[in-house]
Amino acid sequence: MKIRKNRLAPLGFTLAEVMIAMGIVASVMVALLGMIPLGVRAVREATNLTISGRIAQEVISNVQQANWADVLTNYNNKAFRFDNEGFLIRGAQAKGQTHSFEARVQVPAAPINIGKTVYDVSTLKKILIEVEFTPAGIKVPIKPGETKNPNIIKYNFYVANQNKSG
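The structure corresponding to this sequence follows.
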């Protein structure tokens, strides 16, 4: 006579198997949670880069639209302040509002050499724009060991005289 084995043995996981699975899940979760600050910092830096680029484009657009004779007086060695979204803070708004970005403009007076051609400043101007991220209006000092401030981005533009009268 044959003896049949009971096929209704308990199905499931042992306590040891459950503990090993929970350990694996916990270690993966800790690694993923550790990456969140890196992602937040990357998003913040990308946002600041985007806003800085938009600010530089706005400033150079204003320079291009200005009268050629007034570019030096209205823009050279001037600073413009912007809020945390990159919008220019104007006159009455400036009172009581802290800026998050500052754009400084320089217009060198030297002639411009491009290849072998020399352009006089009456026809072509170099515009240097430095955009600094200043959280809550406070300039961030350079950390020890760094050679440049990571909160400052420099842009170089060339603007041609579009006025026929000079």
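The mean pLDDT is 87.
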